[in-house]
Specification:
By secondary structure, this protein is mainly α. It is built from six helices and three strands; from the N terminus they run H-E-H-E-H-H-H-E-H.
């Protein structure tokens, strides 16, 4: 979490290496086998791919790139079912880091909202979106291909039940 004016290109490269280039490399190598089984590719995105938040440029834009890669894969490989899922605000170490380190790079209001959601117990158990993601990997249908969904979207209702 660094504002553009205070960041350096290496921070951005690291975010893109983690969130974009590793996914492209893995998918590229998997395509021949995925074609044989009309396979599914589930990318993990973020709500940050859809809006701008001070200090989140590298992360948000790398997740937006992932959303686009999913859309391009759907066009280029129509036998595959690539889907991008945003899991929401999860009770993870990432959220802890945001609360502890985000004060200096985020607006006061944005940082306070992350702290308040944690204090109110509003962070999600990772098992909830994790279950949806696992079920999509097994049973996503082609009408979902190339699109970005929140884990609890109405279109994914069939994958949300236990």
């Amino acid at each position: 979490m660094t504002k553009i004016s205070e960041s350096d290109a290496e921070e951005w490269r690291r975010a893109y290496d983690i969130n974009v280039f590793s996914a492209v490399a893995l998918v590229k190598e998997s395509i021949p086998e995925l074609r044989k089984s009309s396979g599914r590719v589930i990318f993990i995105s973020s709500g940050a791919s859809k809006f701008a938040l001070a200090g989140w440029g590298a992360y948000g834009t790398s997740k937006a790139a992932l959303d686009h890669i999913c859309a391009h894969l759907a066009v280029e490989e129509p036998s595959l079912t690539p889907v991008t899922v945003s899991p929401g605000k999860l009770d993870t170490d990432m959220q802890k880091q945001i609360r502890e380190e985000g004060r200096t790079s985020m607006s006061t209001e944005a940082h306070a909202s992350f702290v308040a959601e944690h204090e109110k117990g509003l962070l999600l158990n990772p098992d909830l979106p994790g279950t949806v993601i696992a079920k999509l990997a097994i049973g996503a249908t082609n009408e979902l291909a190339g699109k970005h969904y929140r884990w609890n979207a109405a279109e994914l209702a069939d994958f949300q039940s236990k």
